[in-house]
Design brief:
- This protein is an alpha/beta fold.
- The chain folds into 2 domains: 228 residues, Alpha-Beta Barrel (TIM Barrel), CATH 3.20.20; 28 residues.
- The chain has 11 helices and 8 strands.
- An 8-stranded parallel β-barrel has the order 1-2-3-4-5-6-7-8, surrounded by 7 helices.
- It starts with 34 loop residues before the first helix and ends in a 10-residue tail after the last helix.
- The N terminus is likely disordered.
- It is an enzyme of class 2 (transferase).
Length: 293
């Protein structure tokens, strides 16, 4: 499929198509979303959506709903495996989750996190870990946390043919070094975030994700780099937005981060279904004749 065959907002003619009514989502391409489509969105001033996914059913639902990018995040550590942080998840576990999502998604671009401990030692380690995510996990790109100090690592990955999404601002793998979950890039620190983004984009990162940075800083980054930006707690000015799906759909209980918007109450729906099932079992009304061979 050529770019000319892709409908707005990704196709070559996107700039000449009539502006849809406010709130109308863009018509997605019918084929696989590629890195170039995200770049076209940046150039055309349109936006795309990204959600985490860790299993086949979530991947299928989000893929069919038109989500352009699925992130197999190391956030599976604290959203699936029950850990308090993202740090404990292993590369082998990330590969398992990645394969489930990649096998199920027919259209979305699938990106996997390089987990803590899988890339920091050397560029060679990063390449070896990323090759495994692409070969065994079947993902299309990797995401790596860190600033300008990882520019050489990004270059090594790109030379190896591995697309890289950079992740700057608050980087959860460094939460102990950063002093906990804290907004990054305020005041004088804003320029450092911009410099990180420019260095990583110049090194070949196809996209820059920013987490928990002030809107003004995110806007400055978006203006400074040619590649698309993605925000999570970074204001509305980025090309894309990402949320953890359990937060977005209301599966996770407890206090939500300020940047989360909850679009459903899946936790209540599942709890009600489980209680109804248990009531039927205890009352002897399930299984009924229609469920019996």
């Amino acid at each position: 499929m050529t770019s000319a065959e892709l409908p707005a907002p990704y196709g070559a003619g996107a700039g000449t198509t009539p502006t849809p009514p406010a709130g109308t989502p863009p018509v997605p391409p019918t084929g696989r979303i590629r890195i170039r489509h995200l770049q076209q969105a940046k150039e055309n001033g349109t936006r795309f959506a990204m959600l985490t996914a860790y299993d086949q059913y979530a991947a299928q639902v989000f893929d069919e709903a038109g989500i352009e990018v699925l992130l197999v995040g190391d956030s599976a550590a604290n959203n699936v495996l029950g850990h308090a942080t993202t740090l404990p998840i292993t590369l082998d576990e990330m590969i398992l989750f990645s394969r489930a999502v990649s096998t199920a998604a027919r259209r979305a671009l699938v990106v996997a996190d390089l987990p803590f401990g899988s890339y920091e030692v050397s560029s060679q380690q990063a390449v070896e870990s990323s090759v495994r995510l692409l070969k065994e996990g079947l993902v299309h790109a990797v995401k790596m946390e860190g600033g300008a100090e990882y520019a050489d690592t990004v270059r090594a990955l790109v030379r190896a043919g591995i697309p890289v999404m950079a992740h700057i601002g608050f980087t959860p793998q460094s939460e102990h070094a950063l002093g906990g979950y804290r907004v990054q890039g305020r005041g004088d620190a804003s320029q450092r975030i911009v410099e990180d983004a420019v260095a990583l984009a110049d090194a070949g990162a196809f996209c820059v994700l920013m987490e928990m940075v002030p809107t003004e800083t995110a806007d400055a980054v978006d203006a400074a780099v040619r590649v698309p930006t993605i925000g999570i707690g970074a204001g509305p000015g980025t090309t894309g937005q990402v949320l953890v799906w359990q937060d977005m759909a209301g599966l996770r209980g407890g206090r939500q981060a300020k940047f989360v918007k909850q679009y459903a109450d899946v936790r209540t729906v599942l709890a009600d279904a489980a209680r109804a099932y248990a009531d039927d079992v205890r009352a002897g009304t399930f299984p009924g004749p229609e469920h019996t061979f």
